Amino acid sequence: MKHETINSIGVIAGLVLGIVSLSLTGVTAWHQFAPKKDSITVATEGRVNVGARLEVEPFGGINPETGESQPLLGPVTWKIRVHNTSDRSVSLVDFRGFLLTADDARIMYSAMRERLSPIDPSLPVQSLPENIPANESRAYLVSLFVPFSVEVSDENKCTDLEVDLRELERCYFRKGRDLFGNQVQYTETGGDTFIAIMKGAFKGPRFAILIETADGTQFSTQLSFLPGGL
Fold first, then answer.
1. What is the pLDDT of residue 190?
2. Where do the domains of the chain lie?
């Protein structure tokens, strides 16, 4: 009887070990064949001047520090690069833009008019979904309408000029400030060139760009009007 009991225990132990072994095998197999999440990197390559004529809207922007309404100008354009780091195709399905507060809270406003377009600015808005093959990159332009500080004087206002962003900035620099109220030391260097030196730390709007892929994973990067503003 005792021998039979020992044999029974041995059989049960063997069954338990077999079940555990099968379970571990199943978990390993699931990890091997479970679908991998999408993997991309989104990098900002800086602001670019595409020569578009600027528009100014008196309302619709938000000052992220005070919450008060601000005028907007745009489109202001940045170049971004999206790289597919996985070994399979990834599909971009959604794109959104947000204004960031000092503590990186996200603010949405409809007058931002965020737009994702192909690297050629003459082409229409980038249609989504957009497929990026494995281990390849795509460059895009991101355009936004950004809040700015109005000029104190109503005479000879820079925003009354029909110019592109570079010339608008230059007009502000000549008056000793930039679009956001930062003090600037401006020097003509001959021809069409100039130097603008910021006096103190840059204060201006920052933005977050959010890109979503087909499996629902979200990736983001930040944009600043100046490289040192992030």
1. 81
2. 1-34, 40-229
